[in-house]
Amino acid sequence: MQKRFVSIWFRQLLAEWQLIRRPELAEVPFVFSAPDHGRMMITAVSPLAFSFGVEVGMRAADAKAICPGLEILDDKPGRAKKLLKGLGEWCVRYSPVVAIDEFGMDGLLLDISGCAHLWGGEREYLKEIVSRLKSKGYTVRLAIADTPGAAWAVSHYGKLTPLIPTGAHVDALLALEPDALRLEASTLTKLRKLGFYQIKSFIGMPRSILRRRFGEDFLLRLAQAIGTETEVLVPLQVPVPFSERLACLEPIKTKVGIEIAVTKMLESLCKRMQAEGQGLRTGILTGYRIDGKIVQVSIGTSAATHSISHLFKLFELKIDQIRPGLGIELFVLDAPKVDDVQIAQEEMWTSTPGLDDQSVIRLLDRVAGKVGPQAIQRYLPATRFWPERSVFRAASITEKSVSSWRVDKPRPTELLKNPAPIEVMALIPDHPPKFFIYNGVRHLITKADGPERIEREWWLDQGEHRDYYQVEDEQGSRYWLFRSGHYGGDEKYQWFIHGFFA
Amino acid sequence: MEAKKEIVQKLQQDILLWQGFKPKSAGKAERIGLGEIEDAFPGGIFPKKAIHEFITLYPEHAAASDGFIAGLLSVLMENGAACVWVSTSRNLFPASLSLFNVETERIIFMDVQTEKDVLWITEEALKCEGLAAVVAEVNNVSLIESRRLQLAVENSGVTGFILRKDGNKKASTVATARWKISPLPSDTEDGMPGLGFPRWQVELLKVRNGNPGTFILEWAGERFVEVKEVQTPTMWSDLEDRQIG
User: Fold this and answer.
1) At B54, which CATH number?
2) For chain A: N or C, fewer Cβ within 10 A?
């Protein structure tokens, strides 16, 4: 397909941005200034200040002398880039590949191959961009050409038409000044000195001569404008292979509206994924609001799926988090992470229930979407005796246990997270206690089993071993008590309650 | 008259069916291993398609209820299905479940922050047909919440267990059965020292269309065993309020 590019030049990016923010400045001439070698230099000029003769590159003090009521604002480095990034993200509606013009840092370059017909042709396309940006408060100059270089040249220096037809970009360049080639200032002075006021006066010269005079960079810029060298645009947003867009005629601000939009996009996305045998793992729904803000929600699945109803349910949980503001005019649904889908054998045999059951996986996805994946846990046996470490969290829902659960030793059904200290009376050392006091209640012990000594894992932490007793009180309640440490001597010991048996 | 009676009977059967009670199938008896307790339910069948509510005021009761539910789960999960255990403050020790013949790997624990999330997950899980059962630990359930859970159960057929920590008995729910499991002193053979099998007093406080009652049950290693004679022969002098003369 024939490549087509648009160059958007914001003529007074910073000044207009300031006017949008502070409309009261419309009557006041103002400039932006930044320190440079100990002086305040002007970096951007408002239209009103320009009419007084203030220009970019002047000293702020000089400008103040020319124009007495001049307001001088601080310019932050990188502000223009930030603004362009925001504008570029907004421009994604016109083309998926939007790049910042790194040369002038005051424009955008769009790869619009195959996009313009959606707006009814290139003329309408340009009109739409200009008028939309104008309504926002930015005056722009645009050009469409076959190469980014030519589009840039025409947008900045063209005098006739911004629409350069296919194949005519070299002719359009001929009459322009060499400045249109995005060259260094030193090269430009050299060109002027030699009397090259138009591109046509040197475009036909042999490359070797040009290289000797003006260097490799000059040739590269020239080749990029003509199209013999491909210029790679670095897109602000890397396009994802599975992505759906839905532009709305009217801004959407109701929950029902968003739901319909999501369903529509899911329908076409899932159809494509199904055809390619792929399933969604991560999905991002982006809403572009009419006030220029972007709202985003994302979902994740634990197994690749292209089921519309399931994905919709996951998004449904998140719709409440979308703040539509005055309305959303464009929805984009991206699937940055996709996987091969496991095609389940259905209908033929009823699936065996278990952890890999489809409905269970969907339930887990929904729960993970609502309360977070850390809430879902499974436990597997660890080959360790220390009760707190005898189980560990499975890393995934499918992880199998390598060892089996122990059933030879009694374990309480309820285990306290932290053993609680208790007071105990035992008749003889190393006998089970006679009674114990827990939470102010005295439990008289009638039956007991034990002790079961569990040594501390000394390679992990220091401390005493535990002697566990399984005891039953008069009421029949069963407890798991332990004594930490040996009896007697100068060593300290303490009794604890650690759990409740069934 | 006869026709009317038949119609009423038919309607009663239908209502039971909708409420999760299956009529006794002729061929195979679907027993859950609770013995005589199952006869307390209409049709003599433990309702799987229903919400069972457990009152657990003290940790001792919670531990006993955990054990009792684990015993039921061992039967419910026999076909390989998974189970979801939802809670805000879970003390259940996974390593103990294998003593009740439960494959702990197939229990998915969901530990969340709020009671609201517990109820939401419980409802979603009860709708999920791939599960065998859902256990939820909550402080309290209101009538409306329990009704939503019951509706979810009726469609999917997943058994729901709700462990209620709030003892407010007035709080009415639409649960099919309300249980209270309290521990009882265990018994060892021939008076051997040590502890015997876990023994509980199973109080069936409420059964819809059934007969509430109190039973004594023991988990005998791999199944429930009903204990018939529990009271040790009492001496006359031990009896309180005895009338003399």
Assistant:
1) 3.40.50.300
2) N
Q: Which of A413, A418, A439 to mutate to test the interface with B (most CBs of B within 10 A)?
A: A413
Amino acid at A455: E
CB contact under 8 A, A376 and B193: no
ipTM over 0.90: no
CA-wise closest residue to A29 among A15, A17, A43: A15
In a domain, B128, yes or no: yes
Strand order in the sheet with A39-45: A39-45, A30-36, A71-74
Whether residue A363 and residue B186 make contact (CB cut-off 8 A), yes or no, is: no
Contact residues on chain B for A470, CB-CB shorter than 8 A: 195
Domains and CATH numbers, chain A: 243-340 (3.30.1490.100), 414-500 (no CATH)
A279, A338 contact by CB (below 8 A): yes
Q: Which domain holds residue B64?
A: 47-243
Tens of pLDDT, residue by residue, chain B (245 residues): 788 989 988 888 888 777 766 665 544 456 777 878 888 888 778 888 889 999 988 889 999 999 999 999 998 888 888 999 999 988 999 999 999 989 898 999 999 999 999 999 999 999 988 899 999 999 888 889 999 999 999 888 899 999 988 766 666 788 889 999 999 998 887 778 888 889 999 999 888 888 888 999 999 888 888 887 655 544 444 445 555 55
**Do residue A362 and residue B128 have CB atoms under 8 angstroms apart?**
yes
Please say whether the dihedral angle defined by the alpha carbons of residues A204, A205, A210 and A216, taken in this order, is positive or negative.
Answer: positive
Number of domains present in the structure of chain B: 1
